[in-house]
């Protein structure tokens, strides 16, 4: 039994399962060391719909689950019986998709006789950085930016809870990338394509709005984001161009849009860190893979004496390794495992990191 | 020792079969809570029968048709358990489980049908001979299109009495009968693949996805 292990001398070997959206992720870590990160994605099946179709994602999770577990174990060079614990994303995410992962995790827990940890997807995006940069500074200011979330969090101890400071009041940053990509006839998901186009464009060609940065907005929404107005401004600008019969300068639109998003994100993240007296900023989630966001955060943080941590792009997008990383931290810190009736909670609040 | 379960209707059912008979059978009491109830019921059945997971030699699972979310809970559980315990997983059409029980307990003589709730004002449907062998189906359709005076097992007659006036037991599948059906080879053994019978609704999620 896992309780017999000497936790002081042997770092926990944890298998993590992530199925909150369209990727079936199974990761295996030992403490802060990544051993395997197997991901099967159904993104191609969703591309023609311009967004994730929940039922298609759920069907794909069922088909991919066992092969992905098998692949992760092979890569890590372990058998499932070697693991000390199972961790799984219990929420937030798409309800039907989450349920496939949670059920598989319970089956592993029963079949292997090992403890189960149902953990928060967003906290996992924070914990994953330990696989790249070692133990998290405490506290750390985390900015999570993805297709469904844009939030600023104060993290004292990632295994016990995080404090939300601000979040998007409408679209998520990644969603804005997808929508603008569609306007520019770039493929889904839009983030990487905008990033690539932007490299040959001018970020100051078009002056797009910065949401919630006016003096008045800062009073009520100092650490909140809004990207809906920006998305509309880009749409109007592109439509006006098309109406006048002129070609749309895709690279300039992409670069100027990206600059507007990154400017707001970085400005607010650094403001929050300064306000909280926190010297470490961690950026996670799919949008953290954006090259401009990383570069801008680093250059603006330095004069403020703030260190920036961004996991490598492969760890920023959804994966099982991040869930395993948080699970390993739960084991290492002696947190109580979840019960077998653990529910999948599509709207699990970020303050609830272990269910 | 075979572990059998079905999650293709509103309630979860779990049983253990020792090769000769059912030695434990449990079912959930809260509808549509498959994800929360299946694992504790499996653990509870093992405990009740006084066996450990290493004693299991096979898994039987109902492959539907049935509401997709619950169905997947059963199938992913069966596949994952089969994988880690390195034991075979046998799938059985959930409608066959009801049919085997109806034919064996004498609830029917001669041909009959099984109809379960497919929501959207439709039923999952199959027809059987008096021995419980499937003649036709499974399909999903409107009750009016399938209306019959034949005896009909499953929840269909309770939901659509005009279409199916001749209701017979059972109304819900039992994992005990699922185990019997497999152990005695009374039903066609299938791969643990879901019988969806419907294509996914091809609309992207418009609510912002909570994470990515
Ligand atoms: Zn995510």
Describe this structure in words.
- The complex is a heterodimer of chains A (355) and B (212).
- By secondary structure, chain A is an alpha/beta fold.
- Chain A is built from 13 helices and ten strands.
- In chain A, 44% of the residues lie in helices and 18% in strands.
- In chain A, the strands form two sheets. Chain A has a five-stranded mixed beta sheet with strand order 3-2-1-4-5, sandwiched between helices.
- The longest helix of chain A is centred in the C-terminal third of the chain and has 27 residues, at 250-276.
- Chain B has a five-stranded mixed beta sheet, with helices on both faces. A four-stranded mixed beta sheet of chain B has the order 8-7-6-9.
- Chain B is globular and about 50 Å long.
- In chain B, 55% of the residues are buried.
- Residues 206-212 of chain B have low confidence and may be disordered.
- Bound molecules: zinc ion.
- Zinc ion binds next to helix 4 of chain A.
Helices and strands, with pairings:
The complex is a heterodimer of chains A (355) and B (212).
Chain A: E1 13-18, E2 23-30, E3 33-41, H1 43-47, H2 54-76, E4 85-91, H3 95-112, E5 116-120, H4 121-127, H5 130-133, E6 140-145, E7 150-157, E8 161-167, H6 173-183, H7 190-198, H8 215-221, H9 228-243, H10 250-276, E9 280-284, H11 291-301, E10 307-309, H12 313-316, H13 320-332
Parallel strand pairs in A: 1-4, 4-5, 6-9, 9-10
Antiparallel strand pairs in A: 1-2, 2-3, 6-7, 7-8
Chain B: E1 2-6, E2 13-17, E3 22-27, H1 34-49, E4 58-62, H2 68-85, E5 89-92, H3 94-104, E6 112-117, E7 123-128, E8 134-141, H4 143-146, E9 152-153, H5 156-159, H6 175-183
Parallel strand pairs in B: 1-4, 4-5, 6-9
Antiparallel strand pairs in B: 1-2, 2-3, 6-7, 7-8
Bound molecules: zinc ion.
Zinc ion is lined by residues 121, 125, 146, 285, 318 of chain A.
């Amino acid at each position: 039994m896992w309780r017999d292990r000497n936790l002081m001398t042997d770092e926990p070997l944890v298998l993590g399962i992530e199925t909150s959206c369209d990727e079936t992720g199974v990761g295996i870590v030992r403490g802060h060391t990544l051993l395997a990160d197997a991901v099967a994605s159904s993104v191609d099946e969703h591309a023609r719909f311009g967004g994730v179709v929940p039922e298609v994602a759920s069907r794909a999770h069922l088909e991919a689950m066992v092969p992905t577990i098998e692949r992760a174990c092979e890569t890590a060079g372990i058998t499932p019986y070697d693991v000390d614990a199972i961790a799984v994303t219990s929420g937030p995410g798409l309800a039907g998709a989450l349920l496939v992962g949670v059920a598989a995790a319970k089956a592993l827990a029963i079949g292997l006789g090992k403890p189960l940890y149902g953990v928060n997807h967003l906290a996992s995006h924070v914990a994953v950085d330990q696989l790249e940069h070692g133990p998290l500074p405490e506290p750390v200011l985390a900015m999570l930016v993805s297709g469904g979330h844009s939030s600023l969090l104060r993290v004292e101890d990632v295994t016990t809870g995080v404090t939300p400071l601000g979040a998007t009041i409408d679209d998520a940053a990644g969603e804005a990338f997808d929508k603008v990509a569609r306007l520019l006839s770039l493929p889904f998901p839009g983030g990487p394509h905008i990033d690539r186009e932007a490299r040959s464009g001018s970020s100051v060609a078009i002056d797009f709005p910065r949401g919630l940065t006016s003096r008045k907005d800062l009073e009520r929404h100092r650490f909140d984001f809004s990207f809906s107005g920006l998305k509309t401004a880009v749409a109007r600008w592109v439509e006006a161009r098309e109406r006048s019969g002129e070609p749309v300068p895709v690279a300039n639109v992409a670069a100027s849009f990206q600059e507007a998003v990154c400017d707001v994100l970085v400005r607010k993240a650094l403001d929050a860190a300064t306000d909280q007296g926190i010297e470490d900023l961690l950026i996670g989630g799919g949008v953290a893979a954006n090259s401009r966001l990383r570069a801008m955060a680093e250059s603006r943080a330095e004069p403020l004496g703030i260190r920036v941590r961004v996991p490598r792009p492969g760890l920023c997008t959804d994966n099982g390794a991040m869930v395993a990383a948080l699970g390993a931290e739960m084991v290492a810190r002696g947190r109580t495992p979840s019960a077998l009736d653990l529910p999948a909670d599509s709207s699990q609040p970020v303050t609830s990191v272990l269910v | 020792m075979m572990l059998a379960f079905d999650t293709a209707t509103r309630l979860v059912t779990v049983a253990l079969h020792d090769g000769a008979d059912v030695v434990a059978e449990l079912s959930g009491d809260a509808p549509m809570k498959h994800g929360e109830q299946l694992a504790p019921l499996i653990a509870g059945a093992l405990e009740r029968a006084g066996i450990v997971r290493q004693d299991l030699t096979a898994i039987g699972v109902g492959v539907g048709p049935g509401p997709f979310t619950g169905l997947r809970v059963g199938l992913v559980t069966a596949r994952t358990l089969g994988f880690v315990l390195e034991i075979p997983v046998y799938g059985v059409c959930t409608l066959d489980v009801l049919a085997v029980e109806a034919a064996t307990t004498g609830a029917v003589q001669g041909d009959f049908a099984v109809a379960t709730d497919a929501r959207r004002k439709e039923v999952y449907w199959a027809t059987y001979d008096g021995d419980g062998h499937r003649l036709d189906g499974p399909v999903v359709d409107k009750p009016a299109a399938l209306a019959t005076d034949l005896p009909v097992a499953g929840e269909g007659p309770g939901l659509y009495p005009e279409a199916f006036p001749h209701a017979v037991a059972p109304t819900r599948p039992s994992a005990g009968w699922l185990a019997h059906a497999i152990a005695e080879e009374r039903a066609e053994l299938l791969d643990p693949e879901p019988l969806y019978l419907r294509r996914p609704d091809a609309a992207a999620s418009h609510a912002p996805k909570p994470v990515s």
